[in-house]
Specification:
- By secondary structure, the chain is an alpha/beta fold.
- The protein has a single domain (7-270), classed as Spore Coat Polysaccharide Biosynthesis Protein SpsA, Chain A, CATH 3.90.550.10.
- Helices cover 34% and strands 24% of the residues.
- The protein contains 9 helices and 14 strands.
- It has helices at residues 31-39, 44-47, 73-82, 97-111, 129-143, 192-201, 211-222, 244-250, 261-270, and strands spanning 11-13, 16-17, 20-25, 57-65, 85-91, 117-122, 125-127, 148-154, 157-158, 178-179, 182-191, 225-227, 236-237, 255-257.
- The strands form 4 sheets. A 7-stranded mixed beta sheet has the order 5-4-3-6-11-8-12, sandwiched between helices. It has a 3-stranded mixed beta sheet with strand order 7-14-13, with no helix packed on it. Strands 1-2 form a two-stranded antiparallel sheet.
- Helix 1 (31-39) packs parallel to helix 9 and helix 4 (97-111) packs across helix 6 (192-201).
- It is globular.
- The model is unreliable at 11-16 (pLDDT under 50).
Length: 272
């Protein structure tokens, strides 16, 4: 279900296919974050000559519905104006993040099958699109057929059993002592071929709420691996916004996590 179909986001014109389709997993109430993303890093694809229309980068927000399965009037209006919101018939909750992500993969596979890459992000992310584009240009010949998930990845992480943790899984839900190799959920990329494989195997993988680990389990089931494409480049968690500009100028990151709308604007205006 979608209040205003973003299908047109798949093409700039009839003869140009999308190179990267970005899906930001979001919540219906987070209109302030969606507005900040539209005005900052996504806007670079139209205003920066190195991320021009020929680069074919498009973006959609992926949402669930509220607890009553309804959409607010303001959300419907926002979707009608921007035509970049995709809403699925699932309650928007942390537990349903995995479901929402796999449904987004499926939508991309059906609506934009010729897209080169799918880049999944969270809504509190500021993407450095220049670095992602550069990494793709360097590794393009290797990435498409590789059957891998690309991002900031881990190969050996113990399963979290502390019930106080947001990421805890009990042994009944997840009986294994460690997680499979996976790339962290805030931002990772996969080729369309790989995304199709994940969609195909997902119904046969035991469901867990940790979306990035679930995608890692799907990859293992397919015989796919991970690619730490951001090797030697820090994944940046923003803890002190007052030091943000100084840090960015010294060591720009492929993506920043835990970014507020005001920090997104500061990065675009004052930090570049």
């Amino acid at each position: 279900m979608s209040p205003s179909s973003p299908q047109s986001n798949c093409f700039f014109r009839e003869d140009v296919d999308v190179y990267i389709l970005i899906t930001s997993v979001d919540e219906p109430k987070s209109s302030h974050l969606r507005g900040a993303i539209r005005q900052t890093w996504i806007n670079q694809t139209d205003t920066n000559p190195t991320l021009s229309r020929e680069t074919s980068i498009k973006h959609v927000f992926v949402l669930g519905s509220n607890t009553k399965g309804l959409l607010s009037t303001s959300l419907i209006q926002e979707a009608t104006v921007h035509k970049d919101i995709l809403v699925f018939d699932s309650i928007d909750s942390y537990r349903n993040l995995t479901l929402k992500t796999i449904l987004a993969f499926q939508w991309v596979a059906e609506i934009c099958p010729s897209a080169g890459f799918l880049l999944k992000t969270d809504d509190d992310i500021y993407l450095n699109l220049h670095q992602w584009k550069h990494l793709l240009e360097i590794k393009n010949d290797q990435m498409v057929p590789s059957g891998k998930i690309h991002g900031y990845c881990f190969s050996a992480v113990a399963a979290i059993r502390n019930s106080a943790s947001k990421w805890s899984l009990d042994k009944e839900t997840y009986p294994f002592s460690s997680f499979p190799p996976f790339c962290v959920g805030p931002a990772y990329m996969l080729s369309m071929q790989t995304a199709l494989g994940v969609v195909r195997v997902a119904p046969h993988v035991p469901y867990i709420a940790l979306e990035d680990v679930f995608v890692g389990l799907c990859a293992v089931g397919l015989g796919y691996g991970i690619d730490d494409i951001l090797k030697n480049r820090n994944w940046c968690l923003i803890l002190d916004s007052s030091k943000f500009c100084t840090f960015h100028k010294k060591n720009p990151c492929p993506f920043y996590h835990n970014v507020t709308p005001s920090t997104m604007t500061e990065l675009l205006i004052n930090c570049t």
